[in-house]
Amino acid sequence: MMSHLLRSASLTNYVEVARSVGLDPYQQLSAAGINRSALLDPDIMIPAEAVGRLLETSAQVAAIEDFGLRMAETRQLSNLGPLGFVVQGQPTLRKALDSTTHYLRLHNEALHMRIEETAGIAIIRQDIMGLPAGSVRQAVELVLGVLYRLLSMILGPHWKPRSICFTHEAPASLAMHARVFGAPLEFKRDFDGIVCVASDLDAAIPTYDPVMAHLVRRYLDSMLVQSNATMADKVHKLVLALLPSGECSVDRVAQHLGVDRRTVHRHLAHGGVSYSSIVDAVRVELVMRYVESRDRPLSEVATLLGFSSLSAFSRWFGGRFGCSVSTWRGKNRSANSNGLRQE
């Protein structure tokens, strides 16, 4: 699994929220392997996996399902650092989101954002990679909560999206979700993201400042040069985006990158990986999330992972995990039950 880093600004409000639900924040940080010094400098890069584990464990120990949303509730654009200035300095929301996507890995390497438009509807999708199964829910809700606040700050308090969508199941109580979003909620969807009217993307941003935007872009461009993504990173991101379409192939990936397939294979081999190993790694990361929900049909899971048939998916799963999906679900349910009894 690829290791991803993110700015320690992701921990903004963690101490306050942890204390408000009766936790010792420094004990939880230590258990997650995060040095408390990360709280002092928002630009320290820390492992995304550790942050995901911290949020999930904190929610479990506090016996609440909305820990991530509680952290998102008071986030500001300034918490994004220079990325926040880029967003404010764009002429339209579309430009702001495009810029966010372009520079996002400087803020969070594990987070991928893309916009899909069809029939006058826009979906702003968020994908979090590199986190093990069972440590994604709180991170997803934190990310979507922050994104919703960002959109509301840009479009005004009266703006409302069509819906907020989550791949995980609904919590027992939706009180915090209603307070943070105030919009229709949909759970057990095949993506995490915000659905809005496509014309919202062309809304003007009142704070547009071309001079400031140019200066911030120059600064962030210099940072991108220092942290250029490897070929493996680029292929990983494209595989993530193309798998559900059924058109994920090395030729299609090469087309998106503007090179031929031989160039892709050569660069990947130089980095010690292969195209097939990246596809397999992405599938492993995604399948755990999808099969955790017993209500999601396996035929749908197979499609989302880019398999042409359910039988092909079943063979891959059995070969990769040494058991059938139903057996895995049974073991996982038993492990979770034992964990709850121990708590």
What report would you give on this structure?
It is a single chain. The protein is an alpha+beta fold. It folds into two domains: 65-202, no CATH class; 231-342, Arc Repressor Mutant, subunit A (Orthogonal Bundle). It is built from 16 helices and seven strands. It has helices at 14-20, 25-31, 48-62, 67-72, 82-88, 93-103, 137-155, 175-181, 210-226, 231-242, 250-257, 261-270, 275-292, 298-304, 310-321, 325-342; strands at 5-7, 45-47, 111-118, 121-128, 163-165, 185-186, 193-197. Strands 3-4-7-5-6 form a five-stranded mixed sheet. Strand 5, helix 8 and strand 6 form a beta-alpha-beta unit. Helix 5 (82-88) packs antiparallel against helix 9 (210-226), helix 10 (231-242) packs across helix 13 and helix 14 packs across helix 15. The two termini are 29 Å apart.
Q: Secondary-structure map with pairings?
A:
Blueprint (H helix, E strand, L loop, with lengths): L4 E3 L6 H7 L4 H7 L13 E3 H15 L4 H6 L9 H7 L4 H11 L7 E8 L2 E8 L8 H19 L7 E3 L9 H7 L3 E2 L6 E5 L12 H17 L4 H12 L7 H8 L3 H10 L4 H18 L5 H7 L5 H12 L3 H18 L1
Parallel strand pairs: 5-6
Antiparallel strand pairs: 1-2, 3-4, 4-7, 5-7
Helix pairs in contact: 5-6, 5-9, 10-13, 14-15
Pfam family, one: HTH_18
GO molecular function: DNA-binding transcription factor activity; transcription cis-regulatory region binding
Keywords: DNA-binding, Transcription, Transcription regulation
